Amino acid sequence: MRIIVFIKQVPDTAEVKINPETNTLVREGVPSIINPYDVHALEAALQIREQKGGKVTVLTMGPPQAEEVLREAVSLGADEVYLVSDRAFAGADTWATSYALYRAAEKIGFDIILCGKQAIDGDTAQVGPETAEFLNIPHISYIRKVEEVGDNSIKVQRLMDDGYDVVESSLPVLLTVVKELNTPRLPSLKGKMAAKKAVINKLNLDAIGGKDIEMNVGLKGSPTQVKNIFAPQSQVQKRELTGTVEEQIATLCQDLRRIKCA
After folding, report:
1. Closest CA to 65 of 135, 9, 126
2. Angle at CA 86, nearest 5°, toward 81 and 89?
3. Per-residue pLDDT of the chain (262 residues; tens, 9 = 90+)
4. Which of 7, 26, 173, 227 is 20 to 30 A removed from 165 (C-alpha atoms)?
């Protein structure tokens, strides 16, 4: 079983800052982590490998420093890792990102592709489904449980607003997952040692298509561009109650009656 996991290096949301002049995220000096949803995708891939055998390949697109999250993926159990990186990929929107990942996945080969439902720095939830469309394969989003993996098919539970659907698909397939899917394992000592020595396979523009695809990747291939980004202003009004517990309860009751009367 050949399994590819897409991961993304994202800024730790607790540390995110916005440049007031350029309205862009300040990434310099900000701690980076594996997108949390992608960690659950990797755990799902490792569990499938334990059940069916095969190989787990982790792939990310980003600058050279994205090697950090790939080494972390190795420490968790990934068999091999790929960094899709080239200056030509800079400025990519979801469409251009999906196109580059499609070309890379096609080159590597796969039976199943797993990724988080969305990235916490963009929240678009578009890259997974768009990549599947480029690959012309089925895709199922919001996976909360993998019920059964066969040689040529997979059965999963898809999270819905009022419960879940049971969906069966042929392979190859792309799945996007939610956090309810599993509890990710911690890196082992053996995994940490392997991560230090891991070979980072690199795919640049020439490796996935060269000049033939240059107009489909990066800023050139992006039909959308971010015009502005900002932190929303908090509209929540807070007040700290003081005094004894009885006094605080009395004050709270008065406030609630006042709100109800208003």
Report:
1. 9
2. 105
3. 999 999 999 988 666 667 666 556 666 667 889 999 999 999 999 999 999 999 999 999 999 999 999 999 999 999 999 999 999 999 899 999 999 999 999 999 999 999 999 998 878 999 999 999 999 999 999 999 999 999 999 999 999 999 999 999 999 999 999 999 999 999 999 999 999 999 999 999 999 999 999 999 999 999 998 777 766 777 777 778 899 999 999 999 988 888 877 5
4. 7
Q: Model-level pTM?
A: 0.84
Phi then psi dihedrals of residue 84, to 5 deg: -90, 105
| The amino acid at 63 | P
Find all residues with CB under 8 Å of 179, minimum gap 6, and list them: 36, 37, 40
How far is residue 219 from each of residues 191, 212, 252, measured CA to CA in Å?
37, 16, 54
Q: How far apart are CA 232 and CA 217, in angstroms?
A: 31
18 DSSP β-pair partners: 25
